[in-house]
Amino acid sequence: MKKILLGNEAIARGLLENGCCFAASYPGTPASEILSSFVQMAKAAESPAMGEWSINEKVAFETALAVSYSGGRAATSMKQVGLNVACDPLMSSAYTGVKGGFLVISADDPGPHSSQTEQDSRMMAMMAKIPVLDPSSPQEAKEMVQLGFQISEEFEIPVMIRPTTRVCHSRQGVGLGEIPTPAIPTGFLKDPQRWAATPRYRLVLHRQLNQKIDAIAEKYGKKAFSKILGGKNASQCILSSGVALAHTYDLLKELKLENQIALYQVKMPYPLNGKDILEKINPHKDILVIEETDPVMEMQLAQRDRIKGRMDNSIPPQGELIPDVLEECIRKFAGKARETKPAPAGRPRRPTLCPGCPHRAAFYAIRQTFPNGIYPSDIGCYTLGLNLGAVDTVLCMGATISQAAGFYHAYRMKGEFPPIVATIGDSTFYHAGLPPLVNAVHNGAKFILVLLDNSTTAMTGNQPTPGMEVLADGRRGKAVSMEDLVRASGVESLSVVDPYSLEDMTRALKEADKACRSEGGGVAAIISRHPCLMDQGVEKKKRTERVEISDDCIGCRVCTDDFECPAIEMEPDTGLARIDQTICSACGVCIQVCPQSAINKVSSSGF
Amino acid sequence: MSFGLLILGIQSILVISNFEVFMNLQIAITGRGGQGVLFLTRILSECALQIGLDVIASETHGMAMRGGSVISTLKVGSFRGPLIGSGQADVMLVLDPGSYATFANLLSSNGIAFVNTASSTDLPHIDATDLAAKMGSPLMSNLVLLGFALGHDRLFCKYGQVEETAGKISPPRFKDANLQALRLGYSASQKEKA
Fold first, then answer.
1. What does pTM read for this prediction?
2. In order of start, what are the domains of chain A with their CATH numbers?
3. Which of A73, A223, A591, B115 has the largest CB neighbor count within 10 A?
4. Could you read off the pLDDT of A82-98 as tens digits, one per residue?
């Protein structure tokens, strides 16, 4: 039976069909749906397999790894920058190896579409010396789960599966198998020289790792390489992996080049069996390597003079390999004339915070209260505070707090003390905000920290946070209080406000400013708390009021330009503001923003 | 040997021409995040599977879903890659006229775009937002537009097939409204023809 599945759902299904008993993840586009689907499918199949949303990727990795140490099949999934957070256990676990099959699913985002980098997780696999499988479609991603577990158990090594955005978020008919009851972990067998190896034994483990990776290249490198298109007499060939292979396949057919160019798929880009590959492709005169995003396969192949790819700029060194980009590369490689393509005539609409988003109110108050402030921020929906001019830096998870401290120290050396207002979401705070907060307090930094608490991980599809009582599978968990954590970090000034009241929010900001400038002041924190309107779990109040604009509007554009609410637009004919009732949430914050008092709430009975 | 090859050759030509005439279709669906582009992508993918056609689709998730321009591409037939190159889309469903210019380069010279707009345009269009709002569900403009496009018979599937699929995959509380919206768009296209 076939079912239409998203790539991420196909991976989750593959995990369950192959007896994975434990999966852990932290949400991040494009990987988020793997864990949520795993949990839903396990529930539907009444499988005892467990999935958890961990506090961050490092914790997810280590928790799942211990299940593997105990003999169970386990997996951890994350986006590529999440793998950076989990890099420490990744490198070390390659040495210790695993017991139950262990998969690291790291979803890359060439483009990038929803990430701060275009990094190639396959490079990380290479650095760790673990095999990596690179699926070109949802169906293949599911099949690779089986292969991955097999290699992992045979060689007692973590195996990476590296899908990209276009695999994770593709939909395809995928063949389904049975979901068996997973084998329960047999138990942890003590072996200190392995699991608690000192440097002396680490050298031994490194030697074993090198032997494993050579053996995997020999045994599976050959199997994971095949010709999928092209006649025997093709003078040229392309070596490709991942979704770039799928697009290359379509293009070779569209350009009618199958007879001139043979196409080979590499399913395991590291470790390559270079000797075997070069032998097989030897009859072809020219070789082009097409892969996303870095030259992982290309670097492993000798015979540099025959091989084209990223390293000689035959393929652009950055950016997603979309069909238009690939077509130009393939035409050039085939000696075919270039064809000018119609270019997009318009720029895409920029994303915005939703109508009624509590973050918009908080950012508006921050910007109005401290027009000359420095605003470090972080990763999440609230990055879109950029549109309100209240976000100056976005580096990586948790960096807003460390950077606020750094800005404070930099300006102190200059003899200045500008208002520094750091913003961070609730999920990001739990993920990576605690160590920098303790550090900032301990080292005497002074700034305002606004914790934007919407009680969910909104950007990635409203996964629960450790501040909530609900777990990934709907069971009840223990909520860990944000207030308690902030206080325990040594923060003495803390207030909790609902940003929907701009007056309350503004007062809290001014008081926090006073507190950090007072004698003995330090980090002053505000929890700006209002639930995300997109969260299905939030009880929706029945709408009895709607927001309207009266004749007093003079078209000053404060509501559209400074407050930037997408539910308010300027009428082209009159130049006056108008509310789009189809998307307005009736939050009423704009009423407080309008300098003309031209926005009012009216009863919507009879609407 | 050469005779065998000849037969093989003819067969593959027949197969290929069948595919090209009846099966290979590239569809782009565009709009703003939140307009229901993903739901249309799901309906059409499921519909292709029901009919027994191969399908691969690509969706936009993540930050762009917050009101930014989003696009789904759907390829029915013998394709492996989920994305559409410039000038390759046979059909475009445009939920947000403001996003059209961004993606119009995908449309093939023989392709057709169905646009949801209140303004007049040379392209086949319908004020799906207004019709859906009058129906009491402004967020169902996506299905009104799909119904309208189905009436022009340029997709790989028929109205009845889509109606069946939409009924199956709609959440129960939205099912009736979804089907009503689909019908509304379809009837509008039929009235236009009459």
1. 0.94
2. 2-221 (3.40.50.970), 226-334 (3.40.50.920), 358-529 (3.40.50.970), 545-603 (3.30.70.20)
3. A73
4. 999 999 999 999 999 99
